Amino acid sequence: MVGDGDVRRQADVTLGWTVLPITENIAVPLAEFEWQYARSGGPGGQNVNKVSSKAVLRWAMATSPSVPPEVKARMVAAHPSHVTTEGEFFITSQTYRDQERNREACLTKLAAMLRKAATPPTPRKKTKPSKSSKKRRLADKKHNSSRKSERKVGGED
């Protein structure tokens, strides 16, 4: 039985993985993850008060050699609320009633976040307005100016 706050470092035997595959070039060993379990606030009825089904995944991302530095930087920028001051990245899941499915949900969330951070952002291409759009803009400005000037009363005393 797992008590509150128990920490386990282990490979995920149920999925048969020893690494968490992210992309073709990036895979994080499951030995780098630290698991904590707590009582969940999610579904479970009376069972929720007895079983620690909430899974908390902690990963020392700052010291991990598995992920390139630029991906780490994009992860921190995209998900600052998931990073502690010590550089640990943490994810929780309490969606399901059992611990194993919550563990799988944590791993799936992390993999999705890393996959998104692994793709570099596309640089913005500078564009110039076309000649016709410039003419249209100037014509609209002239029209609005003339409309406003017509509102003025001509005789100031």
Task: Write up what this structure looks like.
By secondary structure, the protein is α+β, with helices and mostly antiparallel strands. The chain has one domain (7-118): Double Stranded RNA Binding Domain, CATH 3.30.160. Helices cover 32% and strands 17% of the residues. It contains three helices and six strands, in the order E-E-E-E-E-H-E-H-H. It has helices spanning 69-78, 99-118, 131-151; strands spanning 7-8, 19-21, 27-29, 33-38, 54-60, 88-93. Strands 1-4-5-6 form a four-stranded antiparallel beta sheet, with helices on one face. Strands 2-3 form a two-stranded antiparallel sheet. The radius of gyration is 28 Å and the shape is elongated. Mean pLDDT is 84; it is low at 1-14.
Structure at a glance:
32% of the residues lie in helices and 17% in strands.
List the helices and strands and how they pair.
Elements lengths: L6 E2 L10 E3 L5 E3 L3 E6 L15 E7 L8 H10 L9 E6 L5 H20 L12 H21 L6
Antiparallel strand pairs: 1-4, 2-3, 4-5, 5-6
Helix pairs in contact: 1-2
Poorly predicted runs: 1-14
CATH class type: Alpha Beta
Number of helix segments? 3
Helix content: 25-40%
| Sheet with most strands | 4 strands, antiparallel
In CATH, the architecture is 2-Layer Sandwich
Q: What is the strand arrangement across the widest sheet?
A: 1-4-5-6
Order of helices and strands: EEEEEHEHH
**Radius of gyration computed on alpha carbons:** 28 Å
How far apart are the first and last residues' alpha carbons, in Å? 93 Å
State the domain count. Answer: 1
User: Average pLDDT across residues?
Assistant: 84
**How much strand content do the residues show?**
15-25%
Q: How would the global form be characterised? A: elongated
Please name the CATH topology: Double Stranded RNA Binding Domain
Strand tally: 6
| SS class | alpha+beta
